[in-house]
Structures are given as C-alpha cells and as structure tokens.
Amino acid sequence: MSYLQKIVYPSQTLWTPSGMAARYDASALTGIAGGGSVAAWPDISGNGFNLAATGTSPLYRTNQFSGLPAVQFNRTGMLWLNTAGLSLSNPATLFVVATRSTGGGGFDYIVGDYSSGVGSNMLMVNPSPTVYWFQGNYGCTGTLSSPAALNVYGAVSNGVSSLLRLNGNQFTGNAGSSSTTGIILGGNQSAGATYNGLLGEAILYPSQLSTANLQNNEGYLAWKWGSQALLPSGHPWAGGPPSVGTPPSVLPFVYPARNQDPYIPDEKGETDYSSYGDDQTVLERIDHFIEFDMPLITLGADTANWEAFLEYAATGGHFDYYPDLASSSYTTCHLMSKGNRVAHKYPGMNKLNQTIRFRKVIS
Fold it and tell me: Which pTM does this prediction carry?
C-alpha cells in the first residue's frame, strides 16, 4: 500500500462495451467446476451466437487473472469452439484477451474463421513471437514483448487497410478484404490449426470502431483482467479504467492511507429496566466517517483546486475516494461537513489545515 491517496470528482461511471455482434466472457460461465470441460460457451451479447465444442472440450480454470477464471486450450488432444451462424462483412473489429503457453512449437490460432483456406480471418501467434492478423491473404503483423503474459489483442478488417493493436500499440497492413463467416476460438478450420493457452474474453463488433472506442475496449479489458501495466504510458486509460461523463478532476494528497471504509454502520443494543418493570430495548445506530486533515496547502493552485472541489461537494455532488493511489479500488462518497484553519507562516505561504468528513453513498 502506498501513502498516496486521491479524490476524483465528479464520481465517474465506468465505460462498458455495447453494440457487439458476439461476446464470450469466461467470468460469465456458470455451473462448471474448476478443471471441468467447457462444452458450450454462451454469447452474452444477446444475439445468440453460442459456441459449441468440437472434439475434446477446452477446460475451465478458476482464479487465473485478477481472481477471474479462464478457458484453457491445449493443442494436444483439444480442438476448438465454433459457430457457423455468425456471418459478418467488412468492416468488423475483434478483441481477445489471451495468453500463449510455451512449448509445442508452431503457430497458435487464437481466433479463426469457420471457413477454410485463404478466405478466412485468423489471429495467430508464432514462436518468434510475432502476431499475425490475416484477412484473406497476408494482413499485418505486430510483436509482443511477452506472449506468455495476458495480452489484449485487437484487430480490424475494413476492406481498405488491416489494423492490429497489441495492448494499445497499433500496427497497420494491407487491404484485408475478406469477411467473417463464423468464428472459432482456439483454432482454425484448416487441419491441425489449434491453440495452446488461456483465453479470458473475446468480443466481436460488426463495425470498425473509432480510435477512442478501440482505446475504451483496451482499457476496459486490461483493467478487468489485470493486464493494465502493459498499456503504453500515453494510452488514455493507462492510469485507470475508462469512464463516461464529465472528464474528472483529480485531487492527489499525501497522508497515511486508511483501510477504514468511509461509511461503516454499527449497532449498539441497550436494555432499560424501568421502575414499572417493563423491559425497553433501545437500538442505537452509530455511523463512522472518514475524516482527514490536509495540512500545508500553499496559496495558489492547490487552494483553488480544493475550493473548487468543496464547492462541488457542498451541493451534494458525489466523488470517488481512493484510499490507496496504487490500487484501482475506490468508494463513491458524499460530503458531510468541512472545516479549516489558516495560520500565516511567511509572505506567500499560509498553513491551511483543511478537515472534511464524508461517508459512502448508500444506494
């Protein structure tokens, strides 16, 4: 735990994917024990493109990435999941969160087309490790620093120029003129084209996403599955998951981090035996609040930033409190009371002790 905290306001609403053609999420699988066979993988987009195993089913592995499960493919004795009903013409966008296990040699076909031959779309990784995005003939390539890590793969087919994104880094290629007929996770229709690794999530869009939406998907998937450290420093969501609404203001401050939740209700019972002989039980609720003292705020920007925040919070505006800046965990709160004390130190420097009390928003 770090000793840095921050307040972010207005309280942000996390961005989530929408408008998908199909979506497969290992964390949404239910009724499968750890190590059990994944005979079917439902499409949670609502479009009904459910995947069914062909041959030996991949396996369900619990607690793989940020506590989430994954589906394990093994090129020895396992085949792929496929659906022939999904047919998309250009443009289309694909995202996959997956690892590539070492050993076995050869190409790993993470995603393939249900049709065989050069007309198919394929996302594959070779031992180099080079990533290939095929759309018809040769599309484009990119390089991973660590294919064994959990990587966020993105690919676009639009009939003009192919596009490959690896953890937010972009690579371009040729026209990429093919369309998608069906989709296979963990292989390709061609004989012997299989995959060895763990797959967390796959999302397919029936359109070419804008750069902002490509980055939203990358940020969402990276923070969800715990691979945010692989996003480049210039990525808009390198510092936190994507959000919607008014761009937030961030108030960082130095103070020993607390583990206490900003709102903790306790109950205390007390029995009163009155002179009339009746038992009277009084239940008292005690609310605990986060309270901190922000010392040594200099005149100028720091004071102005805090005043802007307090003006916002005093009107009932919600804000997100991060007790540890090194963590993405936060609590949405509202202000209860505030106070301050100013002591003059020397010209241009005052010591401002700013005390605020706030608690968790109970919805």
Answer: 0.70
